[in-house]
């Protein structure tokens, strides 16, 4: 586990995956079909992780491809606004397009419509990865969606292989989204392969259950993955908190209850808070708790990237919140 922790403490992250545009109905509580106005900002799981990291004092570079149009330029501008490095992003001409998510700031009958046809982020190639200097990162993060289609799948495995050869630890957010995959069988096989190649694996009970072939088998799958020396696995259970497993040990942590205005963005913020806190010198258990606090902050506010907390906001939240569940 020392090599993994040292890599995270290096605080320079290369993040593989997508950026997109988020449109969320305004004001809070408004349904999309009734809305007169939508707010626009950056979205996409990997872009959100980047923003979360930078806001918490880390350095993050997004590794992806974007389309040659106004929506992509909007996303690039927002990445720059938040301080995310964009030097590893390739512009792809043609008919491929950015992801678009249209959702609401409400928890009752929440709707999130995601447009992914002809997604440009799946056009990242092995040649693109060969142009990336993985030695410039202290750790590499991959979200599971990048494995859903070619050429992105092969390109990401190339990136993981290159990072490992350079001694750079690999962090894997399972992030299983069924609509992106050709079949559940392919998804299970590919995501399991990605997990086997990673040093830190983060997922929820449903995702581990999916990898294992049944929700009741998920924790056993997490234990199996955690059996590799030096690997850390975080098994998230929603309102029940999380179990962290490593080197034959495990500990359970709770959550910080809040009044949520939406359900999405929590996982991205958890990842950013976890890693930035380890990098800042917190113990793994404290870092998991700070990641949980970040998740609570994000679901209590509209949007995803704009809701990611700064270090000051996180510390204020922790100082004023009654405390986590057991």
From TrEMBL:
Keywords in alphabetical order: Kinase, Transferase
KW Kinase (keyword) present: yes
InterPro entries attached to this UniProt entry: Carboh/pur_kinase_PfkB_CS, Myo_inos_IolC, PfkB_Carbo_kinase, PfkB_dom, Ribokinase-like
Domain Carbohydrate kinase PfkB: 16-310
GO molecular function terms attached to this record: kinase activity
Pfam families: PfkB
Protein family membership: Belongs to the carbohydrate kinase PfkB family.
Protein name (record): 5-dehydro-2-deoxygluconokinase
């Amino acid at each position: 586990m020392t090599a993994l922790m040292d890599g995270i403490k290096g605080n320079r992250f290369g993040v593989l995956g997508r950026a997109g545009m988020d449109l969320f109905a305004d004001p809070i509580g408004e349904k999309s079909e009734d809305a007169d106005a939508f707010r626009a900002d950056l979205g996409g799981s990997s872009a959100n992780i980047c923003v979360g990291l930078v806001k918490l004092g880390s350095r993050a570079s997004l590794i992806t491809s974007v389309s040659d149009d106004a929506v992509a330029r909007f996303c690039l501008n927002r990445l720059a606004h938040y301080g995310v490095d964009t030097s590893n992003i390739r512009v792809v001409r043609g008919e491929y397009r950015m992801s678009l998510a249209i959702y609401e700031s409400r928890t009752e009958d929440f709707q999130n419509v995601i447009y992914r046809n002809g997604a440009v982020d799946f056009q990242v190639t092995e040649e693109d990865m060969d142009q990336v200097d993985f030695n410039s990162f202290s750790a590499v993060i991959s979200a599971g969606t990048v494995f859903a289609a070619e050429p992105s799948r092969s390109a990401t495995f190339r990136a993981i292989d290159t990072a490992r050869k350079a001694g750079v630890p690999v962090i894997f957010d399972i992030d299983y989204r069924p609509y992106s995959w050709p079949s559940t069988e392919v998804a299970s096989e590919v995501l399991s392969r990605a997990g086997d190649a990673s040093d830190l694996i983060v997922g929820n009970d449903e995702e581990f259950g999916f990898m294992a072939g049944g929700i009741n088998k998920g924790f056993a799958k997490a234990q199996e993955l955690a059996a590799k020396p030096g690997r850390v696995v975080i098994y998230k259970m929603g309102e029940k908190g999380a179990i962290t497993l490593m080197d034959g040990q495990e500990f359970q942590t709770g959550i910080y209850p809040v009044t949520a205005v939406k359900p999405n963005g929590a996982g991205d913020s958890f990842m950013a808070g976890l890693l930035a806190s380890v990098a800042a010198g917190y113990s793994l258990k404290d870092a998991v708790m700070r990641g949980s606090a970040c998740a609570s902050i994000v679901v209590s506010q509209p949007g995803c990237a704009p809701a990611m907390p700064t270090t000051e906001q996180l510390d204020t939240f922790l100082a004023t919140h009654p405390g986590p569940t057991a």
